[in-house]
Design brief:
Radius of gyration: 22 Å
Shape: globular
Largest sheet: 5 strands, mixed
CATH architecture of one domain: 2-Layer Sandwich
Low-confidence stretches: 306-314
Helix content: 25-40%
Number of strands: 8
Structural class: alpha/beta
Length: 314
Amino acid sequence: MIEDYPATLLEFERRFGTDEACRDYLTRLRWPEGFRCPRCAASRVWPRSKGGLMECGVCAYKVSATAGTIFHRTRIPLTIWFRAMWLVTGQKTGVSALGLQRQLGLSRYETVWTILHKLRRAMVRPGRERLSGRVEVDETYVGGAEAGVRGRETIKKCLVVVAAEEEGKGIGRIRLGVVPDGSGPSLLSFAEESIEHCSVVHTDGWEGYSELAARGYQHEVTKLKGSGKLGHELLPRVHRVTSLLKRWLLGTHQGAVQPPHLDYNLDEFTFRFNRRTSRSRGKLFYRLVQQAVEVSPVYWRDVADANRGRDPNI
């Protein structure tokens, strides 16, 4: 399928001014080779009704372009969803829920907050490739200062593992993830989920990485102690990513990211960082919409915390 996306705000407004236009776009992205019935895989379909339902011409199964996606059963107009996706991808550093609420002109903060969190779920492409080649790995803490803790211990802060491909002296793709602790099982689980086996994994001398070689990786260790160098000199790429991440959390979100939702903020940062060289913001919009129809439905209970009431319009 030829990539088709608006290049400018004017073109976006002209193309996606109605729910029907948005639904047509979702349909083309969901079935780029033509409609296939989710039940019987038939290609024959009856003309879509006004409500957006399509009926399989073989088994009579009814489906819509939004069913089974993050837009599943949403009562929010698709035009609002599309504007939200355009704004989220159109700003280089992203947007907070409060900022998005102001730009969309919606009255309920909870509605915008949930839209934003659902979109973050779509920023992880199903079946995405793992990192490969030479990869630096290290951990960092996200959260305020803590007293009375030692080493990699933490009470309130979150431990985040950062993996960055070495691309010459620069950085290739990255992966980020929250882990419960700095133990071997936690760090190895992250590595196997994020990095291809046989890759060279470059770490410091922390014992939690000692079993990487046994798991099929080429483990390169650079010990900080006795080297006469600082951490950012020995593992420069992950330290650069860490610095950018913390600056982004403080700048865009004023540091107000709650631990239960941090993983999804990391997904957004990764989505943006790995596409940082894209010259077209419209292409980022295209990628987000494309992934939004590939991920499973996300419900209020999946994103809400205990302090927020349910919005019936979600």
